[in-house]
Design goal:
By secondary structure, the protein is an alpha/beta fold. 34% of the residues lie in helices and 25% in strands. It folds into 2 domains: 2-122, NAD(P)-binding Rossmann-like Domain (Rossmann fold); 124-279 and 307-324, Dihydrodipicolinate Reductase, domain 2 (2-Layer Sandwich), CATH 3.30.360. This is Gfo/Idh/MocA family protein.
Length: 325
């Protein structure tokens, strides 16, 4: 069993910890928080016995093999590098870092220290998304792809009321393209690889981050349009159009299934069984890399391509973080 520690005590951390336990590959041994009482309150129900308010202490602990990081985006690079240099394997919540330079540095440190670094992009490991990727090869020549993920943030009203939540604060390397928009960019990269051209527009809040935006990724024979928003909801399906057929899917980040519509009019629905806590699949992938003692080259390249795109999108839309300086 891989001995896991959790950095961050929010809802996503609890969900991943449960997924790691459900995979049967991990035991949760430790929790880090700025307050020890918070770490204990979070970790004891998961079976954790080691609690930290110092990353230095976590790093030297012989009771920990791997760490899941779910701290604010701006801390990902610093915390991951510190823990990897201490010999810990790291799975870090998306986005892996604030910008492409940080991602490149993190991957270099992982290689130098012989540890695994993985970006927690669960969609790529879902059974239905894997089936969707196969189905894109059956559509004939591709021409148009539209991926939309727009979800009204539960913290937006706090922002409107004059608060400054992390979600809309550039100090924490946040905003729509770094959060909701990440899924659209990452799905496009997983399905089609890196684009030849990137065009982006965005609408910025007074805080300096983007509230919503649109990204056009150009490939040799087709275009991918990405729509993202943290200030409105979308109920539209995403679509992949080929000359012979098209695929339609809703909420592709969870990808519970999709529909294939042939040009002849025939319609086929695909929905493979998936576990309720869909983070289990990324936990299993992380465990497989640790056991094999080798990072997945495809996953490494995907993280680099995603970060390059998002960094360029921010450059074009004028979203600047302290980490960029």
């Amino acid at each position: 069993m891989i001995k896991l520690a959790i950095v961050g005590t929010n809802w996503i951390s609890e969900k991943f910890a449960q997924a790691a336990l459900e995979s049967g590959k991990f035991t949760v041994r430790g929790v880090y928080s700025r307050a020890l009482e918070t770490a204990k309150r979070f970790g004891e129900p998961l079976g954790a016995t080691s609690f930290f308010d110092s990353l230095d202490e976590l790093g030297i602990s012989t009771d920990i093999d791997a760490v899941y990081i779910a701290s604010p985006n701006s801390l990902h690079c610093q915390q991951a590098i510190q823990l990897m240099r201490a010999g810990k394997h790291v799975i870090c919540e998306k986005p892996l870092a604030s910008n492409i330079k940080e991602v490149e540095q993190m991957l270099e440190v992982a290689k130098e220290n012989g540890v695994i670094l993985m970006e927690a992009f669960k969609t790529a490991y879902l059974p239905n998304f894997i089936e969707l990727k196969k189905a894109t090869k059956e559509l004939g020549r591709l021409h148009k792809v539209h991926l939309t993920y727009c979800q009204y943030s539960s913290r937006y009203q706090r922002y409107l009321d004059g608060d400054n939540p992390n979600t809309f604060n550039p100090e924490f390397s946040n905003g729509s393209i770094m959060d909701i928009g990440f899924y659209s960019v990452a799905a496009a990269v997983e399905l089609f690889g890196a684009p030849s051209k990137i065009q982006a527009s965005g609408h910025l809040l007074e805080s300096g981050v983007d509230a919503h935006g649109t990204v056009l990724l150009s490939y040799p024979d087709f275009d991918v349009t990405l729509e993202h928003s943290k200030v409105s909801n979308s109920y539209a399906a995403s679509e992949i159009q080929g000359e012979e057929a098209s695929l339609l899917l809703t909420h592709f980040s969870e990808c519970l299934g999709f529909e294939k519509r042939e040009r002849s009019g025939e319609v086929t629905s695909v929905s493979l069984p998936q576990v309720e806590n869909s983070m289990m699949y990324e936990a299993e992938a992380f465990a497989s890399m640790i056991i094999a003692q080798e990072m997945d080259p495809h996953a490494m390249q995907r993280s680099l391509d995603i970060s390059r795109i998002i960094t360029e999108v921010r450059l074009q839309t004028g979203v600047l973080f302290p980490a960029d300086k």
